[in-house]
């Protein structure tokens, strides 16, 4: 039934009945609405021997009704696709809606009025358009102008113009051919070449993490926290499987986002290969894989089709915690194979894990719904050094001991000894907003829906005859143990080099920023530019992740946040220009940033198009000096906002301490910073900064101080303007209130 409901959206299965009754009623009134088609259908139906003339007419009318109904569905879907291809509403100034948008809004509402399932909109989402090559090249040149000297810019312009007029057009033709048959011309290549073909460690370089509540740990009982967390994750999986989740939408609007990334959330593993890894997904799994003190276990979470109660899962986890058996030879640090380089892991897997007990045990880990680590450390913001402990908590989630997470799993959940939790997610199957949605649901369900007894245990009854968790058996030869040590050394060197700093910025939040009539994201991005300028004495190529899920199978696009306008504002501020001039330049920089963000969201970005042209050039075996140079430029400042998507789950008014810390990732460049931030409520922004100790020019704590100072300096500048809070200048914010 789900497939039928989803397949006929935006119509409903019951609408067939109305069409059929309508056709039969008009025929009863001696009228032929089919203009002779029903008679033709009747002549070709092989039923004239077994049915009366009236019966044949009835069957023919029903066949015609069905064909008409299907045609109407296709027409409705085509109309919805056309409506969802319109993105001009995003670029309109706040309060200045065009007539086209005024007509468009009710039409979208009308065609989206039925309650959709999770994947109902998939076939109605537009395909990502291929931008014109001259547009992409001119946008690229504009984005690098503030970073290059005049001679450097002249050289780059010559390279770009030569590319555009010669090789570029040829590559563009091939790319347009691909866009005709591919659902999304970027996503499959992006997944393969950026993620799956990468041969270096995925730990730190690719995987990212999500944190628990900042101030609250719902229970200090490790097994109980595991019981509720595992239950909440499995309840979410049930919602995904039954398509009971509401489709994600552009915040404050009815515009749907692609839900394709949800499909591989559970029962998914990245398996290593010599040339390229492969994502394997199983339809279902009734168990999770658990790691504790060097041992691996299979924990069944269903009994005769029934999901175990949180208390039953807590009991099973407690059995694992109480199990005093030692790890088998080579078992304890086996997970390091997933943390090191991919080729040695692929070779070991093929040679030693393709038969016997090793294959059976590895299959259990890879086919599990997800991976659970019962960590024997305590983490969180606690004790005499809360700031330092937050940094250690981030490092623990990003890499742990380098062998106590299974980095290949779609995600690994970590439950600490003191009840704190977190997760580590593999990046190739989905982007952070999809995982953040899952994690928000998990935290809220754990704390507010499932809850705990007064003594901190899970609720629910326990069936005494549950089978024990099953210890996995391994036979690990000396060659594998040697490779485990080698992979661990590579991973440990990488982990030791990561400088993580997490800090909550409590001076103000989006509430005060919005009073200045500025987009919170633009405010933070310009603050990051100012912080970097003060930290390193110059500007750099900046990556801000934006999603392209307005399109089918869309993933991300780059917003090049370092613009001519942001550089002009920072130069003016730092050189002591008047406050009025600085405010004017800030306004221009803010509007420019929002415009860049919207262009990225609506398929008019720069980097994915150039990346795909580069892939085409590789397939054709031709060299492009321009593309080679563009794709080798380092992103010294890589940034991403973690969106809060389900504020309805968190009652921050009555439970202000239940604030999410968000998550973070490792630095993209060896001499750069990775910055993730989450805007929580009205008065707080949490920042996650990462860099490498091996680079003498970067320091995550120093950069954190610069971010705080930049935020406060810009706020002081804007607050000093008596007109700011009353300003009627539009900042081009989306017409969110009008589209609800």
From TrEMBL:
SUPFAM superfamilies linked to this entry: CoA-dependent acyltransferases (SSF52777)
Major localization listed first in the record, in broad terms: mitochondrion
Domain of life: Eukaryota
EC number: 2.3.1.21
Keyword DNA repair: no
Active site, renumbered: 427
One GO term of the biological process aspect: carnitine metabolic process
Protein name stated in the entry: carnitine O-palmitoyltransferase
Organism: Maylandia zebra (zebra mbuna)
Lineage: Eukaryota, Metazoa, Chordata, Craniata, Vertebrata
């Amino acid at each position: 039934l789900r497939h039928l409901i989803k397949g006929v959206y935006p119509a409903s299965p019951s609408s067939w009945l109305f069409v059929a009754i309508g056709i039969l009623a008009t025929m009863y009134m001696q009228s032929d609405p089919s203009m002779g088609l029903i008679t033709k259908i009747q002549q070709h139906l092989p039923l004239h021997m077994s049915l009366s003339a009236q019966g044949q007419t009835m069957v023919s009318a029903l066949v015609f009704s069905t064909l008409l109904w299907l045609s109407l569905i296709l027409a409705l879907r085509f109309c919805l696709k056309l409506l969802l291809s319109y993105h001009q509403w995003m670029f309109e100034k706040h309060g200045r809606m065009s007539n086209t948008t005024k007509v468009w809004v009710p039409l979208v509402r009308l065609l989206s009025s039925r309650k959709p399932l999770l994947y109902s909109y998939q076939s109605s989402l537009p395909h990502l358009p291929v931008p014109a090559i001259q547009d992409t090249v001119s946008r690229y040149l504009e984005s690098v102008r503030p970073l290059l000297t005049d001679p450097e810019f002249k050289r780059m312009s010559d390279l770009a113009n030569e590319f555009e007029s010669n090789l570029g057009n040829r590559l563009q033709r091939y790319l347009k051919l691909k866009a005709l048959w591919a659902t999304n011309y970027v996503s499959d290549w992006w997944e393969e070449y950026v993620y799956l073909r990468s041969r270096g460690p995925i730990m730190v370089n690719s995987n990212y993490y999500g944190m628990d509540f900042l101030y609250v740990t719902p229970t200090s009982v490790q097994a109980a926290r595991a019981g509720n967390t595992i239950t909440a994750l499995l309840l979410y999986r049930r919602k995904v499987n039954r398509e009971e989740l509401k489709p994600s939408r552009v915040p404050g609007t009815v515009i749907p986002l692609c839900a394709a990334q949800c499909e591989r959330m559970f029962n998914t593993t990245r398996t290593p290969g010599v040339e390229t890894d492969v994502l394997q997904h199983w339809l279902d799994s009734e168990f999770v894989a658990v790691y504790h003190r060097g041992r691996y276990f299979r924990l069944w979470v269903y009994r005769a089709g029934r999901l175990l109660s949180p208390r039953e899962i807590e009991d099973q986890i407690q059995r694992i915690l109480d199990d005093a058996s030692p790890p088998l030879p080579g078992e304890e640090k086996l997970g390091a194979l997933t943390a090191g380089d991919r080729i040695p892991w692929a070779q070991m897997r093929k040679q030693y894990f393709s038969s016997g007990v090793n294959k059976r045990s590895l299959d259990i880990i890879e086919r599990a719904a997800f991976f659970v680590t019962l960590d024997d450390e305590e983490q969180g913001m606690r004790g005499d050094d809360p700031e330092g402990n937050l940094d250690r908590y981030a490092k623990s989630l990003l890499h742990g001991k380098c062998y106590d997470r299974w980095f290949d799993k779609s995600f690994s959940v970590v439950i600490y000894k003191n009840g704190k939790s977190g997760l580590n997610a593999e990046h190739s199957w989905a982007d952070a907003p999809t995982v953040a949605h899952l994690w928000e649901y998990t935290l809220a369900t754990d704390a507010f829906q499932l809850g705990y007894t007064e003594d901190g245990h899970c609720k629910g009854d326990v069936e005494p005859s549950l089978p024990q968790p099953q210890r996995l058996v391994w036979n690990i030869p000396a060659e594998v143990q040697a490779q485990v040590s080698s992979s661990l050394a590579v991973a440990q060197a990488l982990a030791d080099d990561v400088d993580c700093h997490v800090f909550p910025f409590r001076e103000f939040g989006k509430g005060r920023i919005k009073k200045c009539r500025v987009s919170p994201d633009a405010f933070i991005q310009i603050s990051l530019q100012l912080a970097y300028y003060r930290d390193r004495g110059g500007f750099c190529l900046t990556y801000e992740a934006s999603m392209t899920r307005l399109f089918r199978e869309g993933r991300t696009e780059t917003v090049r946040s370092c613009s001519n306008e942001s550089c002009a504002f920072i130069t003016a501020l730092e050189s002591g220009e008047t406050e009025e001039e600085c405010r004017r330049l800030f306004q221009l920089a803010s509007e420019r940033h929002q415009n860049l963000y919207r262009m990225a969201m609506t398929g008019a970005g720069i980097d994915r198009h150039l990346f795909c042209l580069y892939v085409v050039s590789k397939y054709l075996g031709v060299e492009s000096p321009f593309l080679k140079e563009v794709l080798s430029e380092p992103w010294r400042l890589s940034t991403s906002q973690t969106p809060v998507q389900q504020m309805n789950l968190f009652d921050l008014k009555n439970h202000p301490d239940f604030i999410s810390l968000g998550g973070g990732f490792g630095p993209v460049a060896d001499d750069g910073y990775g910055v993730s931030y989450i805007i929580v409520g009205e008065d707080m922004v949490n920042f996650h900064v990462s860099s490498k100790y091996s680079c003498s020019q970067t320091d995550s704590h120093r950069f954190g101080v610069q971010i705080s100072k930049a935020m406060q300096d810009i706020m002081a500048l804007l607050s000093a303007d008596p007109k700011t809070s009353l300003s009627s200048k539009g900042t081009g914010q989306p017409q969110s209130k009008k589209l609800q």
